Amino acid sequence: MDLNEIYTELILEQSRNKRNKRELKNPTHVELGHNPSCGDEITLQLRIVNDIIEDISYTGHGCAISQASTSIMIDTVKGLKVKDALNLSNKFIAMVKNEIEDEADLEDLGDAIVFESIKNLPARLKCAVLPWYTLKDIIENDKKEGSFIP
C-alpha cells in the first residue's frame, strides 16, 4: 500500500466516522464554519472548562475531505489547553500553505499530517482548513454563541 492509498483510506474512514459528529451537551462555545465555494458547512461546539477543551464535536455536512479534517482535528485537540489547540490550528494552516520546511515540526499534528499533500490540490485546500480556521476563530474571538443560532 503506497502513501496515497493510506491517505485515501484514512480520509474515507474518518469522513464516515460519526463518533465526533454529534450535538454537544452544554457547549460553552459554538461557531458556524462555511465554505461558500463548495457548500461545506460545519458547526463546531466546544465545552471549555478551566482553559481546557473538555469536549468538542461538530454537526453539518460537506465533502469527505472537510468531514475527515474536522473529525481528525477534534481527535487532535480534545483535552488540550486552549492555547495549545490554537498553536496546532496555526501549524496545520501553515502546513497546508507550505510554510513549514521541517517535517519534525509537524509531528504533534498526529493524523492531521495526512493533509500535508492537500497543498497540491488548491481546489480542496479550503475543504481541509475549514474546521481549523473555525476553531482558530472560536479561540481568538472567544465565540461563545458564534454566528450560529440553534
TrEMBL record:
One of its GO terms (biological process) is iron-sulfur cluster assembly. Coiled coil: none annotated. Pfam families: NifU_N (PF01592). One of its GO terms (molecular function) is iron-sulfur cluster binding. Transmembrane segments: none annotated. Residues 7-127 form the NIF system FeS cluster assembly NifU N-terminal domain. InterPro entries: NIF_FeS_clus_asmbl_NifU_N. Belongs to the NifU family. NCBIfam families: SUF_scaf_2. This is SUF system NifU family Fe-S cluster assembly protein.
